[in-house]
Fold this sequence. Notes:
By secondary structure, this protein is mainly β. It has a single domain (2-88, 116-191), classed as Lipopolysaccharide (LPS) transport protein A like domain (lipopolysaccharide transport protein A fold), CATH 2.60.450.10. The protein is built from four helices and eleven strands, in the order βαααββββαββββββ. The chain has helices at residues 12-20, 25-29, 40-43, 97-101, and strands at 2-5, 49-52, 55-59, 64-75, 78-91, 118-133, 136-146, 151-162, 165-175, 181-184, 189-191. Strands 1, 2, 3, 4, 5, 6, 7, 8, 9, 10 and 11 form an eleven-stranded antiparallel beta sheet that branches.
Amino acid sequence: MAVALAFGAADAAAQQQKNAQPQQQPQQQKNQGPPNALQGFSQNRDEPVKIRAASLEVREKDKMATFTGDVYVLQGDTELRCKTLVVFYEEETTPQPSQQANAARPVKAAEPGPGGDRQIRRIEAKGNVVVVQKDQNAAGDAATFNMRENTVTLVGNVVVTRGADVLRGQRLVVDLTSGVSRMDQGRVEGLFQRAPAEKK
């Protein structure tokens, strides 16, 4: 089963904040912390999100959709794999004029419903979460993507790799707006390989 979603449209507030502070961007990049694969979701923000899973359960009343069974998410050059992915969304309360005109007309099963636009509020990935972008990997037991705050939190046996460099800890929080990463909640271990010296 394959489904396409648009993550980028879900967080208008973060996008406005990003657009309102273009001069600060170069300054922030100096103190970003360790680069990691989770930042790929910010870099690929305008790309569509494709999700493949064995099954999908939608609970309209609870405003949630649950993908289970070898879940694979692709956005641009960033991949996410996990056992379960739960998407929490909210619907627009004001229907568009075209929807008001069509409200009395019966809806066929193959047509989209008149519920309004859906915005993703939060995404929870559970079970062997792995995010890959180019030569960067980030893995942990669970991840939460908070669209309102534009942050990603990876928890439980977190391992971040970039090439031969490895960073381990219990929790990694990435602010996708500023690009700042923070690893905390317990000891942090790092192994950083020196680049081989060039032969003369």
